[in-house]
Amino acid sequence: STTDFLNTDPFAAARAAADYIAEETGVDRHDTALVLGSGWGEAADLVGETTATLSAEEVPGFHAPAVEGHVGTIRSVLTKEGKRALVLGARTHYYEGKGVRAVVHGIRTAAAAGCSTLVLTNGCGGLNEAWAPGTPVLIRDHINLTAASPLEGATFVDLTDLYSPRIRGLAREVDPTLDEGVYAQFPGPHYETPAEVQYAKRIGADLIGMSTALEAIAGRHAGMEVFGISLVTNLAAGISPQPLSHQEVIESGQAAGPRISRLLADIIAK
Ligand SMILES: Nc1nc2[nH]c(I)nc2c(=O)[nH]1
Question: Ligand 1: which of 185, 199, 208, 240 to mutate, most ligand atoms within 8 Å of CB?
Answer without folding.
Answer: 208
